[in-house]
Design brief:
Number of domains: 1
Low-confidence stretches: 157-163, 190-204
Number of helices: 6
Helix content: 25-40%
CATH architecture: 3-Layer(aba) Sandwich
Strand content: 15-25%
Shape: globular
CATH topology: Rossmann fold
Length: about 200
């Protein structure tokens, strides 16, 4: 049976967290879709809340803790990534962005990524396309066409047959990521060891 690894990055701050709940629903849907095609998937969940102090220390010192290094390595070595953040002040959370900032700029090159977010109201859903999608595009990841946003009103709704709700969006996005992950594993990703770091200025 074909083997794949799926990394799940979730940046919810509370416990329990709707962000983690959405991440779990998406990962279960992707694993299910991959199983239908004969692909066995191992899932690595990175809960950024548990690494908040390590992320801050890394930003200040430039050195990751062992736990943070393992989390970063698991994403870099994965065949696909699900990234979920709460929306604060019309954009991704500061903790989510801080974690992304400590990842090597080349680590996500050609990595299939499903982006998702949670928020209080539907009007914040546009943040997926004007903030989160450009972030991963800048890092040369392959961002799936369907992004999933879950407002407070989405939970417990949209499960009826034919309903255009959260369940439908989750399944559509999961199908896209599963197809991409099944088609090309990490062995097909070519990372340029000589790539210049983000923001490099040859003029100093």
């Amino acid at each position: 049976m074909t083997q794949r690894t799926l990394a799940v990055l979730t940046a919810g701050l509370s416990q329990p967290s709707s962000t983690r709940l959405l991440a779990d629903r998406l990962s279960a849907a992707v694993v299910g879709r991959l199983a239908e095609t004969g692909v066995e998937t191992s899932v690595e969940v990175i809960d950024v809340r548990e690494l908040a102090h390590d992320v801050t220390n890394n930003l200040l010192t430039g050195f990751p803790s062992p736990a943070l290094e393992r989390a970063i390595d698991s994403i870099a070595a994965s065949d696909g990534l699900i990234a979920v953040t709460p929306i604060f002040t019309t954009s991704y959370s500061g903790l989510f962005k801080s974690f992304i900032d400590v990842i090597d700029p080349t680590a996500l090159t050609d990595l299939p990524v499903l982006i998702a977010a949670t928020g209080g109201t539907e009007r914040h859903s546009l943040a997926l396309d004007y903030a989160i999608r450009p972030l991963f595009a800048y890092l040369h990841a392959v961002v799936m066409p369907t992004a999933v946003y879950a407002a407070s009103s989405d939970w417990g709704a949209g499960s009826a047959p034919g309903a255009s709700g959260l369940t439908e969006r989750v399944e559509r996005a999961a199908g896209e990521l599963a197809a991409s992950v099944a088609e090309s594993g990490r062995s097909s990703r070519v990372l340029d060891p000589f790539a210049l770091p983000a923001g490099f200025n040859p003029a100093g």
